[in-house]
Write a structure and sequence with these properties.
mainly beta; 7-stranded mixed beta barrel; 1 helix; 10 strands; about 40% strand; globular; disordered N terminus
């Protein structure tokens, strides 16, 4: 009887030990703590581009230019004076020369052309019209009209020229093209030299009172 009890006690003891071992084996490991870095702050959205125009309105050129025998020559800004002369309009194209232009040693370029538009009766109708001039003589004329280079050393007088006018506002496009005769002041008795002139001028417009 005692032997049986010992055996039963041993069995129970073994069962308790196994149960304890089982409990120790099933114990879950401690959770691992991880550190999560915060997400980076997204960059600020770029500012919306401005809708205002970045280019400035076109302005009157500081200089004007003409192609003379294939070479560009610079002049002061162009001006165009329109007036009614009797029963037609007269257009005067001239350069806005500096004050120094009256000096004997002035070496700049200039131009002055007085052009009667015999078929135009109203200043408002100048747009699209043209002045056509064809000289009947190749002799030097006693006139202040022409294109002047190097002060007064060269006077280019119109020989066979067309001048066309375009525009209706405060400035007009003036297209000059044709043949001029170059008379040099140093050789007043020499005949004029045929010279080709071509160019587009943007001219500020002056209108006589009432127009």
């Amino acid at each position: 009887m005692r032997a049986n009890l010992r055996s039963l006690g041993a069995v129970i003891t073994m069962m308790i030990l196994c149960a304890g071992a089982a409990v120790g084996c099933d114990k879950s490991p401690s959770p691992v703590t991880t550190t999560v870095s915060p997400l980076p702050t997204p960059p600020a959205s770029p500012a919306s581009p401005s809708t205002e125009p970045t280019t400035q309105p076109a302005t009157q050129p500081a200089v004007s230019s003409l192609l003379i025998n294939g070479v560009f020559k610079q002049f002061p800004p162009a001006r165009l004076r329109l007036s009614v002369d009797g029963d037609h309009v007269t257009a005067v194209l001239y350069s806005a020369d500096p004050a120094a232009a009256i000096n004997d040693d002035y070496a700049g370029n200039s131009f002055y052309l007085s052009m009667p538009l015999t078929d135009v009766k109203d200043i408002a109708s100048v747009d699209g019209e043209q002045w056509r001039f064809k000289s009947i003589s190749s002799d030097r004329a006693d006139t202040t009209d022409g294109i002047f280079l190097d002060g007064l050393k060269h006077q280019l007088q119109p020989m066979d020229v067309v001048v066309r006018f375009e525009g209706t506002g405060s400035s007009m496009r003036v297209r000059v093209a044709g043949e001029f005769l170059d008379f040099q002041s140093a050789t007043p008795l020499m005949p004029g030299v045929l010279t080709l002139v071509d160019g587009d001028l943007t001219a500020d417009v002056e209108r006589d009172a009432g127009h």
